[in-house]
């Protein structure tokens, strides 16, 4: 979308008409006039501009056997633009393209290495974006907004302040680099924060506004929602509870490693799944390992729960596949640590939760910066 197109939505009459159409089925001119509170000529002028921008279409009227001239209908065109959600992780990059309602058009997942340089990782991101746009039959000029989630502390402008998992990522102004590539508004956020937003939008936390999301794989991290909004804190470090080493989040995953052989980093998640499966079958060694992991996990959750008093804690990442095998000992331990233990559930989303939360963020950018909502 060009600057000239975007500026058209700054006109209050255009924004009002579009807001009604975006939230409802196709409307007649009479219905739009009533629902916006604007005069008929004003609404007609707004619709003409929106049709010119190809954001709204004038549908051919359906007489339906009625006597008299049928009223014309106007429909918002979600296909008029696209949004992009990115998950830039340690071992993979996910690029997800959707229309303006969030309906997925294409998703690409590419593998990367934890040892890749920042430049190589960014090149992989750009490659995944190109492939996703191509699969969706779109180009960069169709993008209205984008958002990306990545590991580390991210400042408000999208700079990676610090990333322990990806040291070469530290100090990189990822937001600026993506804006130059994509030519649209871009938001960069911590990956756990975006996963929390995805759970609130389409996952286990729908309808719940105060949420702690815990990413539990070979690394542990957390994202916070307060009042349905991501809580970043003053410098973007909210939820970085793993930095408090006395809670042992930095080493908790050791409990889920197989003891008879060293486990490469890119195999640790699948190894954890084997241990959960063995615990489910009653293997005493596996049960003890899960209990130790749950003990450490609960300590960090309790620290956050005692501070913000969430209604719900969602456990995501590969450890979520442990289901009740993991949740039950965590909930039991929480009862001993918290005055009011929150409910704990596992994520209902797959490994695309960060990219999905990025899509939701990109849609929010469109609402705020393009449609002025």
Strand order of the largest sheet: 6-5-4-7-10
Give the CA-based shape: elongated
Helicity range: 25-40%
Q: What composes the largest sheet?
A: 5 strands, mixed
Structural class: alpha/beta
Strand content of the residues, in percent?
A: 15-25%
CATH architecture title of the largest domain: 2-Layer Sandwich
Number of helices: 11
Cα end-to-end separation? 17 Å
> In CATH's first tier, which class of the largest domain applies?
Alpha Beta
The whole-angstrom Rg is: 24 Å
CATH level-four homologous superfamily name of the largest domain? ATPase, nucleotide binding domain
Q: What's the number of structural domains?
A: 3
SSE string, helix = H, strand = E?
Answer: HHEHHEEEEEHEEEHEHEEEHHEHEH
What is the fold-level CATH name, i.e. the topology of the largest domain?
A: Nucleotidyltransferase, domain 5
Question: Residue-averaged pLDDT, rounded?
Answer: 89
Low-confidence stretches: none
Total beta strand runs: 15
């Amino acid at each position: 979308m060009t600057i000239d197109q975007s500026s058209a939505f700054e006109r209050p009459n255009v924004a009002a008409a579009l807001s009604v159409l975006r939230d409802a089925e196709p409307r007649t001119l009479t219905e739009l006039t009533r629902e916006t509170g604007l005069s008929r000529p004003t609404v007609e002028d707004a619709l003409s501009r929106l049709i010119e921008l190809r954001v709204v279409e004038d549908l051919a009227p359906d007489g339906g056997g009625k006597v008299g001239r049928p009223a014309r209908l106007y429909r918002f065109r979600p296909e008029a633009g696209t949004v992009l959600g990115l998950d830039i992780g340690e071992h993979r990059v996910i690029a997800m393209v959707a229309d303006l309602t969030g309906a997925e058009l294409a998703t690409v997942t590419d593998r990367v290495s934890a040892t890749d340089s920042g430049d190589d990782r960014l090149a992989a991101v750009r490659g995944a974006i190109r492939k996703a746009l191509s699969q969706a039959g779109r180009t960069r000029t169709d993008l209205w907004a984008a958002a990306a989630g990545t590991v580390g502390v991210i400042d408000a402008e999208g700079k990676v302040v610090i990333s322990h998992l990806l040291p070469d990522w530290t100090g990189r102004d990822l937001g600026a680099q993506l804006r130059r590539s994509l030519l649209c508004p871009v938001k960069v956020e911590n990956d756990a924060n975006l996963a929390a937003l995805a759970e609130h939008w389409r996952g286990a936390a729908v309808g719940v506004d105060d949420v702690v999301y815990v990413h539990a794989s070979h690394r542990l991290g957390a994202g916070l929602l307060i009042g349905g909004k991501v809580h970043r804190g003053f410098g973007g470090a909210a939820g970085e509870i793993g930095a408090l080493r006395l809670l042992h989040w930095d080493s908790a995953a050791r409990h889920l490693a197989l003891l008879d052989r060293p486990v490469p980093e890119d195999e640790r998640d699948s190894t954890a799944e084997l241990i959960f499966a063995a615990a489910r079958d009653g293997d005493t060694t596996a049960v003890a390992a899960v209990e130790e992991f749950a003990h450490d996990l609960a300590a960090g959750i309790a620290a956050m729960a005692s501070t913000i008093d969430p209604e719900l804690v969602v456990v995501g990442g590969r450890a979520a596949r442990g289901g009740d095998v993991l949740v039950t000992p965590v909930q039991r331990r929480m009862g001993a640590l918290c005055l009011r233990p929150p409910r704990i559930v596992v994520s209902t989303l797959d490994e695309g939760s960060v990219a999905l939360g990025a899509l939701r963020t990109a849609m929010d950018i469109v609402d705020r910066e393009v449609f002025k909502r």
